Amino acid sequence: MRVQSHGSGIRRRIAAGCQSARALAAVLVAVLALPFLCLGLATEARAHATLVSAEPADNEVLQTAPTRLTLRFSEPVKLMSLSLAAPTGETVALKGAEVDGTDVSVAVPANMAEGTHAIRYRIVSADSHPVGGSVLFSVGAPSGTPGRGDAPDWPVAALVFSSKLLLYLGLFVGIGGLAYGAAIQPFESAARRVVRVFLVLGLVAVPVALAAQGLDALGASIGAFFQPDSWAAGAETSFGRTLGIAAVSFLLGLAAAFLPGGRIGTVLAGLSFLGAGLSLAASGHASAAPPQWATRPAVFLHTLAIAFWVGSLLPLALAIQGGREEGRAALKRFSAAIPFVLLALVASGVLLGVVQVREPDALFDTAYGWVLVAKLGLVSLLLLLAAANRWSLTPAVAGGADRTVRERMVGLIGMELALVLLVLAVVAFWRFTPPPRALQEAARQPAVAYLVTGRLAAEVTLRPGRAGPVEASAALSTIDYVPIDPKGVTFVFTDPAGRVPPVRQAGVRSGNGLWQANAALPVPGRWQVWLEVGDNRVELEKVEGTIDVRP
What we know:
Elements: H1 2-41, E1 51-55, E2 60-62, E3 68-73, E4 78-85, E5 91-93, E6 98-100, E7 103-107, E8 115-124, E9 130-139, H2 154-183, H3 189-218, H4 228-236, H5 239-258, H6 263-281, H7 285-288, H8 292-322, H9 325-357, H10 362-365, H11 367-398, H12 403-429, H13 436-443, E10 447-453, E11 456-463, E12 468-478, E13 488-494, E14 503-506, E15 508-511, E16 514-521, E17 525-534, E18 541-549
Parallel strand pairs: 2-9
Antiparallel strand pairs: 1-3, 3-7, 4-5, 4-8, 6-7, 8-9, 10-11, 11-12, 12-16, 13-14, 13-17, 15-16, 17-18
């Protein structure tokens, strides 16, 4: 009977091992497929800072070549590269660009050929994420286009994704494991080895993530991985601060993991744990969102809560599996601490979610929202598993239950770890998606035009500066900047392409020299705009020009 029982136990363990291996394989396949699936969904909206206007405008046809190019973005940017592609396909780098907050301006080469040209740019937005794009314009007449060059570089995108995932694993499993060892129970040898492995993985991920950031910022291919410019470009972004803090945290963590214990090891583990929170609070969507006095501390707290929870899972499972009194004591201490950790996790997560999403519709109208929905679904499953462990199995295991109950709890913890891997993969994809907050702010950016005709000048503003219903306003003055107060002003908008009839709307006085009108401009592009101004000296005078309306 003993032999049969022993054989049955072996078969059960083999079956359980095979099932776990199949589950882990499924999780790994999902993780590896996720960046390619999600990047495909988000290809059209990878921007974080958004191009608001350009001079020349996108698809504009000019009779003569411009002398200067100007790009205006929705937020201050750092220029990484700027080039001009000729109709022949030849591309030249544009040097000497001037960056003034949201505006990038550069002189263009003389003797530009007739045909269609492409301005290609790479900038880094305030949240450290690179943005690439292009603007097409034609001199004389359109020709075969040189191509926008906006397609994502899949090898670089995969490197960015995988390095960020490894960084998360190092921060949450490695450094979070140190927090368990300092706050819950000193490590057993097996748990210490596991923590060391994840700390090393995180440290290795730092230079890889730095180079990947630089490649993405410059729009370079994977072949430029070892070039100094790629590493320097990554370090120049705010993500470089995150990686610098993370590297120090991993080194402190490794020192703590190799010490035999004691006060010095505990202090080093604590500093490493705090560094993990500071690293993710130093850059990223959430940290860059206003008000930063609330969002940066929320990211810090959210990171520490995740690290403690996730980092405790493996060491706790190993402690429980042994069935010793130390494992039961560790389970009791963890169960007493985790409700407060989850409260901090949920509270900070709700704050950050509200700041980034703002409107419930954005959960299903944006790629960022879908990622958040996926994350919330996976985290809900995690919480259900944690609740099952706490309310069903914890009392029994803490009271000295037999091996079957302990193995059941260890199995549930293994499922939690698999879900954690998926959650971290989903979170890593946020690197490629603009938050709804940024999209909404970009959509509200106005379009502005300065019109001068004869003795009059006007500054015309459209809010928002995109196709659809707009509020038009005009500040009128003489060319010597003396405000005028005419009897009436009429706004007239004409689409040069003739796609829609002219839009004509009488203005309403809103202040000294200020007039407003509501209009509907249904299509994007460069519109002709003029103001019909009537005053006491001239029956009717026009001031005219053009204004760019975004999609």
